[in-house]
Design a protein that fits this description.
This protein is of the alpha/beta class. It has 14 helices and ten strands. Strand 1 (2-7) and strand 2 form a beta hairpin.
Length: 287
């Protein structure tokens, strides 16, 4: 029995495959070693009834997460997993690797994540590589949920939202400046808070203000995270993540204008990632 876990900063999808080939799914909060310590991760794992019921029966756990990009940070998550899944070989790797493996179709490709945060990589079937780093929600995350949430909140506070959007925003959230400041500057989950406003943006995606904001953000992402690859116009460019999925139409426009070939767009790549691991003849080592 194996588990594949695909974690962003907001939520983590856990896919369990038993020895009969049956699949079960469960969810927890997202675990990011920039923001969470082993005790908090372990506490949340224990609170999940599905995971607790099988914690001592697993052969392997493959965890891919935002922020899991170095041995030091990976060890934060690995410590909790090893304490919880006592019989399993536990492996922790970057969410970029998960995106690359899940979308791989035998061809070299650029794979992008656009969800709560954003990033990109190049995968040739053997090596996952980056040209430019992800800088996080303060310095980077172009085109992501946190990026758009930050713009929406700023325009609201600056009184720059179109009247009809402002009215709808106030009706839905009753936002107060001090509460916004607290969530952004005094908590360790500001990126998740900012990205939560995608729930407002998506239902209003046909509004001219939203269209323009998303178009500019995704164009900015393409300039930095796609055109940095010398052969970006020659290989497919895949996307995973909710923001990429919800704004497929705008991505198609950006792809046409920037000269790249739009490949797979997968909102939740967990099942594809599970199939990838089930197809492997051996368990990969930690990295």
């Amino acid at each position: 029995m194996i588990i594949v876990a695909e974690s962003g900063s907001t939520k983590c999808d856990w896919l369990i495959s038993n020895n009969s080939g049956q699949t079960q799914e469960t969810h927890t909060m997202g675990f990011n070693p920039f923001f969470h310590q082993p005790d908090e991760i372990l506490s949340n794992l224990r609170a999940n009834e599905t995971l607790s019921s099988i914690a001592g029966q697993l052969d392997a756990v493959f965890f891919y997460g935002a922020g899991c990009s170095s041995e030091e940070r990976n060890s934060v998550v690995l410590t909790a997993l090893q304490q919880f899944f006592t019989t399993a070989r536990c492996h922790v790797n970057h969410d970029l690797n998960a995106a690359a493996f899940a979308t791989y179709d035998g061809r070299s490709a650029i794979t992008c994540i656009i969800g709560t945060g954003s990033n990109s990589c190049y995968y040739d079937g053997e090596t996952v590589s980056e040209v430019v780093p992800a800088l996080g929600y303060i310095l980077g995350d172009e085109g992501s949920g946190s990026y758009f949430g930050k713009q929406l909140l700023a325009d609201y506070l600056y009184k720059r939202l179109p009247a009809e959007l402002n009215e709808a925003f106030v009706a839905q959230y009753h936002p107060q400046k001090e509460e916004i400041f607290h969530q952004v500057y005094n908590t360790n989950k500001a990126n998740v808070y900012l990205a939560s406003f995608v729930r407002f943006i998506v239902p209003h995606k046909d509004h001219a203000y939203i269209k323009e904001m998303v178009y500019k953000g995704l164009s900015h992402f393409a300039e930095i995270h796609i055109k940095c690859y010398p052969n970006y116009h020659e290989v497919p460019v895949h996307f995973v993540g909710s923001v990429a999925f919800y704004f497929t139409g705008i991505l198609q426009k950006v792809a046409s204008e920037k000269g790249f070939q739009l490949g797979v767009i997968d909102k939740n790549p967990g099942m594809s990632l599970l199939k990838y691991h089930l197809a492997q003849e051996s368990v990969p080592t930690n990295s």
